[in-house]
Specification:
This protein is mainly alpha-helical. It has nine helices and three strands. The chain has a three-stranded antiparallel beta sheet. A hairpin with a 7-residue loop joins β2 and β3. The protein is globular. InterPro entries: HTH_MarR-typ, MarR/SlyA-like, WH-like_DNA-bd_sf, WH_DNA-bd_sf.
Length: 168
């Protein structure tokens, strides 16, 4: 083995161990289906932003607000932007009538951003056709089948989450 050859070349994989793993990896139908689902899911937010006229950050904020109200500092962390940028997002959503600021119930110095009925309809209205198709799909599985699907998707979500952690 020459000084310039890599360990991967010595193992018969010119690109190294990662290339060797991928070249030897035979993806199953479930992995291929997961890749298709992830690819298509990645197209949902841009499609909704085009249809709604909202920015990606405004839509991401409304998606979060559907779950719960948030303070602007928490919103900034969620969006990975400055507090000033998060304030601007809140201002734009308020101007559209999709969100409103309210005093925090326990800390009067703090304000939380809440979704309005129009904001909720804006997000959910665009997603409703997809939700209906997913509900129909889910209804076609037995409880035992749904448990297997959930276990698989939870494991996949953990694999994705591991890629986004700071210590990865």
């Amino acid at each position: 083995m020459s000084e310039n050859s890599s360990e991967g070349e010595a193992a018969g994989h010119p690109g190294g161990p990662a290339t060797g793993f991928v070249d030897a990896w035979r993806q199953t139908g479930s992995l291929e289906a997961l890749r298709r689902a992830v690819r298509e899911a990645g197209r949902v937010r841009p499609a909704v932003t085009r249809r709604s006229g909202l920015s990606v950050t405004e839509l991401a904020t409304l998606e979060l607000l559907v779950e719960r109200p948030v303070g602007l500092a928490e919103l900034a962390r969620h969006l990975e932007v400055s507090t000033a940028a998060a304030t601007g997002v809140g201002d734009r959503l308020e101007a559209h009538g999709h969100a409103e600021r309210r005093a925090h119930p326990r800390d009067r110095r703090r304000t939380d951003l809440h979704i309005t009925a129009s904001g909720r309809e804006e997000v959910l209205g665009h997603l409703l056709p997809m939700f209906a198709r997913l509900a129909e799909l889910d209804a076609g599985f037995s409880a035992a089948e749904r448990a297997v699907v959930a276990r698989y998707l939870d494991g996949a979500a953990e694999a994705f989450a591991a890629m986004t952690r700071d210590d990865a």
